[in-house]
UniProtKB/TrEMBL annotation:
Residues 1035-1361 form the Beta galactosidase small chain/ domain. Signal peptide: none annotated. Its EC number is 3.2.1.23. It is an enzyme of class 3 (hydrolase). Coiled coil: none annotated. GO terms for biological process: lactose catabolic process. This is beta-galactosidase. Residues 1-33 are annotated as: Disordered. Pfam families: Bgal_small_N (PF02929), Glyco_hydro_2 (PF00703), Glyco_hydro_2_C (PF02836), Glyco_hydro_2_N (PF02837), LacZ_4 (PF16353).
Length: 1377
């Protein structure tokens, strides 16, 4: 083997390693498919092996694993994974011991060599470095800096022995004395290591004590009718009361599962739960174990369950992105460790006592089920220690039968905030301890021995049900007459909350007898439906499966006794990878996905069913079809919602070690951390494998590479090989970026578009490509999305199958706004006084914490829309050109391409409208008759109904430029769905339309004449030391100021209305503007990365000295140059010149302006030439030339090139012709349609949680600001052509807060509440405005096309035109263009 080449090694494995899955006869005969397996383990304690249910051959044929397409893309049958090589060399144990180190190394070498065979594909690291990095470097790091207590003690011991031996050899020299001091110092420095020994919350080899094995959710129904009804409810049903009067409870579903009692109480005033917070774990355990604890009633406070105690005023909310909130010293955690003690007294429910006919327990067994707590928990019942668990996001179940009493029970849960589990839960979200999911007591009646069941149903209609039984020889159940009966019904859940459902017909049934034995038994049943309705995210058809354990009370009498019933919803679907594509039911899918944290702005990690439902509904409404449960398993109910609504789920294990450098430190430590990794990954699969919505398993996130993940992957494949595995290691160099051998799908995070396309060109790697995270949505972000989706939809790149946006929800915590005295704001890291935090890095969702969409959501919705609408002959600008005759306005032909994989377009109804630049009203509109049953379809639209309206508009158009027209096509839901109302728009596309008219003479009347005082009016000029004033004069006596220009700044000081009112707010002017309120992406650069990686190290200055500032953020460079809002640049006029025409109808004022640093007026940043062409009729044409100075060259891009002004507060009625209606920027405007839009300053703004630049509108031709009462106002209109020869346009924003206010604010509460008409309007008119970027938020990422190059000169001009209510701004702007 030592000399084997990669190809030889793989061939050897293929030939010699047997198939790990059971074989099958290959027949569809259901009755021949039963398999019985016997095991004896009952508890999942620290030493327990991981046990798995057998997977039938049909499931293995749906193949997915490392050993199928991922490693052997040319083969289509099942192969063992390379991890099985170790089985040929040494005996394999799930919990690896130190003596098996060689086995682990051999397994890693096999994996690396196999990866080299197909092409590792990591663009950053050559293949020959992989063994060095992964097998030597990381292992050496673990030896030098061990991350488990046993190895730490071994290291200390060996070091002490060496030093003491040296001391003995050199005694009595001073070297010996120093050696002894070194031993004492080493022991003292590592005293916490000895403290941690034998404490389970600091022992990663002990994921739990006395925890029962994981299984799918069980409800132990007493009847099949109840089980069927409960399957069509999203929640896991349970009793919520303890009295017999519960039978009259209106909450009927709580009675469906009489063997499950939910102990939750969300009302803090009536809750029976009591709470104390202790400073240390020892204090909490001492209190619990003390006989006097009950006497300290004054220390107990009521606490609602579930809840996070920091959301109830205890302890401290902490947010970090990757840095650990405690000293990184695994597995040790601080001695001062907030520990919450929850206690509840209870009697057993009366119904349970009445079932036995007396007031004592029957022969049932009982378990306590904790669905989720953070991060470790001891369980005590009636002063007896029941067990211990870690893993904050998966259920833990404990047998409480020996300690349970009929009455007067005291349940105590000791929840520990920091544990060794903290080190693998570093997941870029709030650290919130407490019980965040339900607490239940489960009664298992005598004979209810169904412990688990697994169903797999594929797209061919084949399905298998595997049922695990615990056959206890000591119970009295007559197992010789027992049997398992499985039934499949076509039930329908009609409403999301399950309040309405429709029982359907029985479509299949099967049964198997139970053979009496000891230990555990596995029974498998199988069948096939001839033409099943398949489950997909587009067509989420579900069946109801019931599994019944029953026995015959009296053999021969035909009466069966139901012992236990379980149920779940089943979707028939197949997930596989073939020819480099992820296929669902044999068809390629595109992942329109989002990463989603569990977050509630008021309750932290406690997420209600309403919130889960809302999240999925708003995603479906915006064309999302996939969710990655970043970065941990979600509440069980969430998957039931995903099954029901139709969402593809990448189900992620609760593992992330982002705070380590390298990230794979723990991943390589098999002697200490393997149990932690394997248990978290396998238990996830064991809980969620019955959900059709789960199409990918994820091993976790950003935890490097190493043997623990390889072991876990191998164990996962033994449980379930029907789904691909995804994993992104996070380390850009040695640890893989979604391309390692651990993943079946290339799933990197945050590659730019060029690198994303480059992934398709890696030799010998044909895996599908799905970005696990892309487009970091931090604040005003998500630029460049259109580039990603251009390639995701491109047939030339079929392996690019989409990705998951980061992320869905801004993780803000709602706090009252005490500054403004009303409302609220959302807090982020550092707002709770925590010393360690990562500021607003948790504010990176596309929805606000209260689920309001960011403007970027509209962009995503458009780019991911399920139908492509195009022209038969594509053009660059998508313009439609039509010849109009006397009798016809022509016809438009459009092509519709169905992007759905599994449905036609018949559920959509289509309409069109023709709009113009003249008004918000439609020129014409109509419907489209689209059959919708073809993948591609062409449709013709007649515009004859628009003919008369078009002619009327043409007769009143500008004589200089014609009108502009736009055809907009929309597809909306024909009927209401469970996630949207009828008429909800899913598809939209806009096309510019050019009409060419025949030779018929059209009378065009002039649309605008402004001569209020007649041709007798003239202009005159006066000057003093401060300003130049241009007057409008009628006759010898009437003289009114027209325009004032400041000689010190070169700025316009007044814009006069026709009634001689200054439309600028007092003491304001029109000035050049080159800065903006920095966005989060503007602030992202090397200095941010250095501060994340090496906080407070001062490396930024050293880096700039060595490497310069080229990799630093835009904001850093702007600040260095003097283009920041803290010290805004100043305009200084170097000279003016006035030129008057002989007829006195026009005056030109020329000003040379120097833009200097705010704190150093001697340093010129920009030289600008301004010419104001002032006309007698009130118009002003502003022309300017901008010359950036060489000192700005290192900026690479200016924030903007434009002008700013402050308009009078009364001019809040805004109308413009440009892109809208929502905020857009040059690199995020694909969804923004061109038209006439109406808005207000308050509506234009989007209040990002961390205030930044916002509210921009792009590609504008004109904008008007008018007084709502009299229509008086001003119009700004573009003029001339841009550098490319196209008609010029501009950006504009009009807000109630200026850039400096936004830049200084850290929260929305730092901004004064302002309403329309109460505050001046801050207007920006920009010739160029830098894009927002968005690939990442920690490195400059605005693409070249969207930069405002600092070495380039700019020329632009625009009109300022006073208007009244009757003016046609559109024609006026065209006349002036």
């Amino acid at each position: 083997m030592a000399d084997a080449q990669p190809e030889d090694l793989v061939e050897t494995v293929e030939k010699k390693v047997p198939d790990v899955l059971p074989t099958d006869t290959g027949t569809d005969d259901d009755n021949d498919n039963d398999v019985i397996h016997i095991t004896t383990d009952k508890n999942e304690d620290a030493s327990a092996n991981v046990h798995h249910m057998s997977v039938p051959q049909e499931e293995s044929e749906i193949k997915y694993g490392l050993a199928t397409n991922a490693m052997f893309p040319s083969h289509h049958h099942h192969h063992p994974s390379m991890g099985d090589l170790a089985d040929m060399v040494l005996p394999h144990q799930v919990a690896a011991k130190t003596e098996h180190f060689l086995e682990d190394v051999l397994e890693e070498i096999a994996q690396v060599l196999a990866t080299s065979r197909r092409g590792r594909g990591d663009l950053a690291t050559p293949d020959f470095l992989t063994p060095l990095n992964d097998l030597i470097l990381s292992d050496l790091v673990n030896l030098v800096s061990p991350v488990n207590t046993r190895n730490r003690i071994l290291q200390i011991g060996l070091g002490s022995v060496v030093l003491l031996a040296f001391a003995a050899h050199t005694f009595p020299s001073y070297q010996a004395f120093l050696a002894i001091l070194a031993v004492v110092g080493m022991v003292y420095r590592n005293r916490r290591v000895f403290y941690a020994y034998d404490k389970p919350w600091m022992d990663p080899t002990t994921p739990a004590l006395k925890r029962l094995p994981m299984h799918v959710p069980l409800r132990l129904f007493a009847s099949e009718a109840n089980a069927r009804r409960a399957a069509c409810l999203p929640q896991l049903v349970a009793m919520t009361t303890t009295t017999t009067e519960s039978t009259t409870n209106k909450d009927e579903e709580s009675q469906l599962a009489p063997n499950i009692w939910k102990l939750d109480d969300r009302n803090p005033e009536t809750t029976p739960w009591k709470f104390q917070l202790k400073d240390t774990v020892e204090d909490a355990l001492e209190m619990v174990q003390s006989s006097t604890q009950q006497n300290n009633s004054n220390h107990w406070k009521p606490m609602d369950v579930p809840s996070n105690w920091m959301m109830r005023g205890y302890d401290q909310c902490i947010y970090t992105n990757q840095v650990y909130p405690i000293p990184c010293n695994p597995p040790i955690v601080p001695h001062k460790n907030p520990t919450g003690v929850y206690q509840r007294n209870f009697d057993m429910p009366d119904t349970w006592l009445h079932d036995t006919g007396n007031s004592s327990k029957d022969a049932s067994s009982f378990a306590l089920l904790l669905h989720g707590m953070e991060s470790a928990c001891y369980v005590f019942l009636n002063d007896q220690q029941i067990g211990f668990t870690k893993d904050s996001r998966l259920p833990a179940e404990f047998d409480i039968t020996p300690a349970l009493r009929s009455h007067n029970n005291t349940l105590t849960l000791v929840v520990i905030r920091w544990s060794d589990g903290t080190y693998v839960e570093d997941q870029d979200h709030w650290w919130m301890a407490g019980i965040h999911r339900s607490v239940e007591i489960v009664r298992r009646p005598q004979g209810a021995n169904m412990m688990d069941y697994h169903v797999h149903a594929d797209a061919n209609g084949r399905f298998k049900v595997a049922v695990q039984l615990s056959c206890d020889a000591n119970n009295n159940s007559n197992q010789t007459t027992a049997r398992i009966v499985a039934r499949l019904y076509q039930d329908q859940q009609l409403t999301p909350d399950g309040s309405e459902w429709k029982p359907g017909p029985l479509v299949w049934t099967g049964s198997k007898p139970v053979v009496q034995t000891e230990g555990a038994m596995m029974i498998e049943l199988g069948g096939k439906l001839a033409q099943p309705q398949l489950w997909t995210a587009e067509t989420p058809h579900l069946y109801t499966l019931t599994v019944t354990l029953e026995e015959n009370d009296s053999p021969g009498n035909g009466q069966d006794k139901v012992l236990q019933v379980e149920s779940c919803r089943v979707g028939f679907r197949t997930v596989e990878i073939e020819n480099g594509l992820v296929l669902v039911n044999g068809k390629k899918i595109t992942i329109c996905g989002v990463n989603r944290h569990e977050h509630d702005p008021d309750h932290g990690k406690v997420v209600s069913h309403e919130s889960m439902k809302l999240d999925i509904e708003i995603l479906k409404r915006n064309n999302f079809n996939a969710i990655r449960t970043s970065h941990y398993p979600n509440d069980s109910a969430f998957y039931r919602y995903c099954d029901y609504y139709g969402m593809y789920v990448c189900d992620e294990a609760n593992i992330e070690t982002h705070g380590f450098k390298p990230m794979g430190n723990l991943t390589h430590d098999a002697t200490g951390w393997e149990n932690t990794y394997v248990s978290r990954i396998t238990r996830l699969v064991q809980r969620d494998r019955n959900h059709a919505s789960v199409i990918f398993w994820s091993l976790g996130n950003e935890s490097g590479r190493g043997r623990n993940l390889w072991k876990a992957r191998k164990e996962l494949l033994q449980i379930d090989s029907s789904r691909p595995i995804c994993y992104e290691g996070g380390g850009a160099m040695v640890e893989g970026t979604g391309l390692s051998e651990l993943t079946d799908v290339i799933c990197p995070m945050y590659p730019n578009v060029a690198r994303t396309v480059g992934l398709t060109k890696i030799e010998h790697d044909e895996r599908p490509i799905i970005l696990c995270e892309y487009s970091h949505s931090m604040g005003n972000s998500n630029g460049n999305l259109s580039w990603y989706w251009r390639y995701f939809w491109d047939d030339e790149y079929p392996r690019l199958q989409g990705g998951y946006i980061w992320d869905m929800i801004d993780q803000g915590i709602r706090q009252p706004d005490t500054k403004n005295g009303k409302g609220f704001y959302f807090a982020y890291g550092g707002d709770f006084g925590e010393a360690i935090h990562d500021r607003q890095f948790c504010i990176n969702g596309i929805f606000s914490p209260d689920r309001k969409p960011h403007p970027a959501v509209a962009e995503l919705k458009y780019l991911m829309q399920p139908v492509e609408i195009s022209l038969p002959v594509p053009t660059i600008d998508k313009t439609i050109r039509i010849a109009v005759s006397k009798t016809s306005a022509g016809e438009i032909t459009l092509k519709f391409k169905n992007r759905y994989a599994f449905r036609d377009l018949s559920h959509l109804e289509w309409s069109w409208k023709l709009t113009s630049n003249r008004s918000t009203a439609d020129v014409a509109s109509g419907t489209i008759n689209l059959l919708g049953d073809e993948e591609r379809e062409s449709v013709s639209i007649s515009l004859d109904r628009a003919l008369e309206s078009i002619r009327n508009l043409e007769k009143t158009k500008s004589t200089k430029r014609g009108n502009s027209y736009f055809l907009t096509v929309t597809g909306a839901l024909r009927n209401a769905t469970v996630w949207a109302e009828a008429g909800h728009e899913l598809v939209t596309e806009q096309f510019p339309v050019e009409f060419f008219f025949d030779k018929e003479t059209m009378t065009v009347k002039k649309s605008w004449v402004f001569d209020p005082v007649g041709q007798s009016a003239t202009l005159s000029v006066s000057q003093d030391d401060d300003k130049i004033t241009v007057f409008r004069q009628v006759g010898a006596t009437t003289k009114a100021p027209h325009v004032d220009i400041c000689k010190k700044t070169g700025a316009i000081l007044s814009i006069m209305s026709r009634n001689n009112n200054n439309l600028l707010s007092p003491n304001q002017s029109l000035v050049p503007q080159y800065t903006r309120a920095a966005t989060d992406n503007d602030r992202g650069g090397m200095e941010l990365m250095l501060s994340f990686l090496y906080p407070d190290s001062g490396l930024e200055e050293l880096w700039t000295r060595v490497y310069g500032i080229a990799t630093f953020s835009y904001y850093f460079r702007w600040k260095m140059a003097g283009l920041d809002q803290a010290r805004p640049p100043r305009p200084e006029c170097k000279g003016t010149q006035v030129i008057e025409t002989t007829d006195k109808h026009k005056v030109d004022v020329e000003a040379i302006v120097s833009i200097t640093k705010g704190d150093n007026t001697k340093k010129e940043l920009v030289r600008q030439k301004l010419i104001y062409h002032i006309y007698m009729d009130g118009r002003v044409l502003v022309s300017t030339k901008v010359i950036p100075r060489p000192c700005l060259s290192e900026c690479h891009s200016l924030p903007r090139v434009g002008m700013s002004l402050s308009l009078d507060k009364s001019l809040y009625r805004i109308k413009y012709f440009g892109r809208g209606p929502f905020e857009n920027y040059d690199d995020r405007k694909a969804a923004s349609q061109i038209g006439v839009h109406e808005t207000t300053p308050k509506d234009m703004a989007y209040h990002y949680i961390y205030p930044v630049e916002n509210g921009n509108r792009s590609d504008c031709e004109w904008v008007t600001f008018t007084n709502a009462s009299n229509g008086e106002g001003v119009c700004f209109a573009s003029h001339g052509r841009d550098e490319k020869g196209s008609r010029s346009s501009f950006h504009f924003s009009a807000l109630l807060h200026g850039s400096s206010e936004l830049d200084q604010a850290k929260h929305t509460c730092d901004l004064e509440h302002r309403d329309n008409g109460e505050h001046p309007i801050r207007v920006n008119l920009d010739h160029r405005l830098m894009g927002v970027g968005g690939d990442v938020s920690w490195f400059p990422c605005v693409y070249d096309d969207y930069l405002v190059k600092s070495e380039k000169e700019y020329k632009y001009s625009f009109w300022i035109i006073p208007i009244d209510a009757g003016d046609d701004a559109a024609s006026l702007a065209r006349e002036m263009s």
